[in-house]
Amino acid sequence: MTRALIVGAGLGGLRTAEALRTSGYADEIVVVGDETWAPYNRPPLSKEALAEGITHERLVFRVRDQAADVAWRLGERAVAADLGARTVTLDDGEVLGYDVLVAATGVTAWRLPFGPAASAAAGRHVIRTLDDATALRAQLVPGARVLVLGAGFIGCELAATARGLGCEVACVAVDAAPMLRPLGPELAGELRRRHEAHGVEFHLGVGVTDLVGDEHVAGAVLSDGTRLEADVVVEALGSRCNVGWLEGNGLDLADGVLVDAALRPLRDGVPVDGVAVVGDIARFPNARFDDRAHRVEHWSLPTDTGRRAGAVLAAYVSGHGYDDVVAQRWEVLPSFWSDQYDLRLQSFGMPGLADPDGIRLLEGDLHDECVVGYHRGAELVGVVGLGMLKAVMAYRPKVGRPSA
Fold first, then answer.
1. pTM
2. Which contacts qualify for 133-138: CB closer than 8 Å, 24 or more apart?
3. What is the pLDDT of residue 404?
4. Comparing C-alpha atoms, which of 48, 74, 103, 57 is closest to residue 245?
5. What pLDDT shows up at residue 50?
6. Is residue 163 part of a domain?
């Protein structure tokens, strides 16, 4: 009897467990996760679930029949791994052995290192988990002054949701426009215009030098000297990868975990067999775009990487066709969507790979509904639609270098 140990009980861990079963792995699967909740859908936490009320029952993923016998060890956290001894140590000191290992521990939110205690009780929030969203929702009452730090997708979704709940909202970011890096200046400028039309106040091109307040946050001081009052502060400043438990194994952990196209971590350029990395922490080459390693935090990636990892590890355990599975061309098309007010933004590909002058309007009107293309040379590397879902879907097969 062999054991597949999956560290991380989110979507990536769930999809890997299912893929192990569908790929023929019939032995023990154990999933360890630091949250007490069974795997659930996270994107709605900053959108409709936050606006309409949050329950685990509404967000939980159905476990497919083939993974019904998986052992879930929730509320437990991995603190160390020894890839040579094939063991993982949990926070209570228990040591679990494994035959194959999956790292699916995802990311956590960055926090500012100053100000009142970084807690919901002090009015300081992040939104990465169900518990985070529940605590934030309780404070998003009409008239509350909400300060959103960061103007990426999560920050902008939170701003839109808070305005819909009757809050006063200000948004602070070091970039010159909201969502500038993934969207480019023209589309980012249009998103800013739409947010301002709904009453969001932007402070752009500035950072935060202090959070004001003793036991409860009262506002923030910006790098230009501006002081903003607030009842609620949401830190949407980006993420850090949960990879500390993998330290000491000679892996490249500079930005997630560097892996090959079979999702095996690399030690001095050599793949570590019997181990796979999935989801937000995997930095992998994607043949659809190029041979460089990229880390992508899009909702589609846990499923894509989980399926690949399950197939590779099942072949490794069985000893049948492993080299063939590893050698298979593997490509994925990242996708994400964002709901802000009555706007649905949908993207396929990797717009961030585009040349600075490679962003062009493909269809529609930038001030209404449109499709924007992102080009690297002559190659379409990404497409983003504001509305026009049918039109943007038509560009999907043209993005990147899909296999025949």
1. 0.95
2. 133/45, 133/46, 133/49, 133/50, 133/54, 134/54, 136/50, 136/232, 136/234, 137/50, 137/53, 137/54
3. 53
4. 103
5. 86
6. yes
Task: Tell me whether residue 77 is exposed, middle or buried, using C-beta atoms within 10 angstroms of its C-beta: 0 to 12, 13 to 18, 19 or more.
Answer: middle
Residues 97 and 119 in one domain: no
Task: Tally the domains of the chain.
Answer: 3
SS (H, E, C) the chain: CCEEEEECCCHHHHHHHHHHHHCCCCCEEEEEECCCCCCECCHHHHCHHHHHCCCHHHHECCCCHHHCCCEEEECCCEEEEECCCCEEEECCCCEEECCEEEECCCEEECCCCCCCCCCHHHCEECCCCHHHHHHHHCCCCCCCEEEEECCCHHHHHHHHHHHHCCCEEEEEECCCCCCHHHHCHHHHHHHHHHHHHCCCEEEECCCEEEEECCCCCCEEEECCCCEEECCEEEECCCEEECCHHHCCCCECCCCCEEECCCCCEEECCEECCCEEECHHHEEEECCCCCCCEEECCCCCHHHHHHHHHHHHHHHHHHCCCHHHHHHCCCCCCCEEEEEECCEEEEEEECHHHCCCCCEEEEEECCCCCEEEEEEECCEEEEEEEECCHHHHHHHHHHCCCCCC
Residues in CB range of 184: below 8 A, 6 or more apart = 351, 354, 359, 372, 374
Long-range residue pairs from 319-327, CB within 8 A, at least 24 positions apart, any chain = 325/262, 326/262, 326/264
- 82-127 pLDDT, tens digit per residue, is 999 999 999 999 999 999 999 999 999 999 999 999 999 999 999 9
Q: Tell me which residues of the chain have a pLDDT lower than 50.
A: none
Q: Is residue 96 part of a domain?
A: yes
Nearest of 107, 110, 94 to residue 32 by alpha carbon: 94
Length in residues, the chain = 404
Question: Domain for residue 334, yes or no?
Answer: no
* Rounded distance between C-alpha atoms, residue 151 and residue 169, angstroms: 12
CATH code at position 50 = 3.50.50.60
Q: Are residues 101 and 125 in the same domain?
A: no
Query: Domain range for residue 165?
Result: 111-237
